[in-house]
Design brief:
Helix content: 10-25%
Strand order of the largest sheet: 1-2-3
Radius of gyration: 16 Å
Low-confidence stretches: 44-54
Number of domains: 1
Structural class: alpha+beta
Strand content: 15-25%
Number of strands: 10
Shape: globular
């Protein structure tokens, strides 16, 4: 699966792996939907990302939870642009200036594995766009 297609628990788990956490995808006890959880003892467990401490697993959902995803956006200097942002397209039926139609984001602090600048996008969620960017990129010097 491409980074630009990641959603839900898979996206959350990918972000956790980039950050050096050990995610588990499990079924929510009530809804049976897949969720990403982090157990105590992970390298970066606790209030730094999760905002809570406990003896059991902590649900990790930065793509939908601003308390977890917001600090990552700030930490990595992620710039978000809304769907109304103007972009220039070369060629095709929508050539010229127009609205992007997507939440897009970039960062000068994060780079893809090939050294290029990363780009995250999502049709309806700025958090998901930012987490796709983090999932695609390698942290500088492997430091978290």
């Amino acid at each position: 699966m491409e980074f630009c297609e990641l959603e839900g628990a898979e996206l959350d788990a990918s972000v956790a792996r980039v950050l050096g956490l050990a995610p588990n995808i499990e079924r929510h006890p009530a809804t049976r939907e897949p969720i990403c959880v982090i157990y105590p003892g992970a390298p970066i467990y606790g209030p730094l990302f999760c905002g809570e401490k406990g003896h059991g697993a902590t649900r990790w959902a930065p793509s939908t939870n601003w308390a977890q995803g917001g600090p990552l956006i700030e930490r990595f200097g992620i710039h978000l642009s809304g769907p109304e942002s103007r972009v220039h397209r070369n060629g095709g039926p929508k050539a010229g200036w127009g609205e992007s139609g997507l939440w897009t984001c970039t960062s000068w602090k994060l780079r893809r594995a090939d050294g290029g600048r990363g780009l995250g996008y999502h049709k309806s969620s700025q958090l998901a766009a930012a987490m796709r960017l983090i999932a695609e990129c390698v942290l500088p010097d492997n430091k978290v």
